[in-house]
Amino acid sequence: MNIFRLAGDLSHLAAIIVLLLKIWKTRSCAGISGKSQILFALVFTTRYLDLFTNFISPYNTVMKMIYLGCAYATVYLIYMKFKATYDGNHDTFRAEFLVVPVGGLAFLVNHEFSPLEILWTFSIYLESVAILPQLFMISKTGEAETITTHYLFALGMYRALYLINWIWRYYFENFFDLIAIVAGCVQTILYCDFFYLYITKVLQGKKLSLPA
Amino acid sequence: EKEMPSKDEL
């Protein structure tokens, strides 16, 4: 474990908690893409199948359980408890256009052709594009609540910190996983224009609004 | 570098 990976995990955890609290406190999921949250729940489910069979450390197990629990709780709040506030008219990104190609790619490009490895690879590829419905929704509504932008910033930073972690592990631990690195680069690049807007607008105290 | 599946990561 290195500082970049720990910072990345904490940033990821912060994002997940911020989103859950935002929905719970405001009792509203306005501006939140339920499709992205379903994709994230799918990412954690397919990645943590070895949660009970492959013990790595208490930290690893606890964090996986928190991620899984919060992901499903968020989906529950969006589609069940606060369904009335779900903005389905703007959450129209065709998620199947992500899941099907990612599923095919996981079959073709992986480290080992075994069920667990293919599902892990699927989760890595899916995570890199899972935010697209959310970013698409913001581009459609033309704006985002400030708390939502903080959620997105923390979520985007988590994988950017992981990229630094992989550089660190490459030099100090001779560790190298091309699939995770390439997917992580794609994932972080997708946030770039949001990062630009976040830094130039939200951090200047303005509301994030896109030229509609 | 040897490729290692990054299973110790979240």
Automatic annotation (TrEMBL), chain A:
Tagged with keyword Transmembrane helix: yes
Location in the cell: Cytoplasmic vesicle, COPI-coated vesicle membrane; Endoplasmic reticulum membrane
GO cellular component: cis-Golgi network; COPI-coated vesicle membrane; endoplasmic reticulum; endoplasmic reticulum membrane
Keywords: Cytoplasmic vesicle, Endoplasmic reticulum, ER-Golgi transport, Membrane, Protein transport, Receptor, Transmembrane, Transmembrane helix, Transport
Gene Ontology process terms (BP): protein retention in ER lumen; protein transport; vesicle-mediated transport
Pfam families linked: ER_lumen_recept
Predominant cellular place of this UniProt entry's protein: membrane
Membrane-traversing stretches: 62-80, 119-139, 151-172, 178-199
Bilayer topology annotation: Multi-pass membrane protein
Record's protein name: ER lumen protein-retaining receptor
Species of provenance: Ciona intestinalis
Gene name per UniProt: erd2
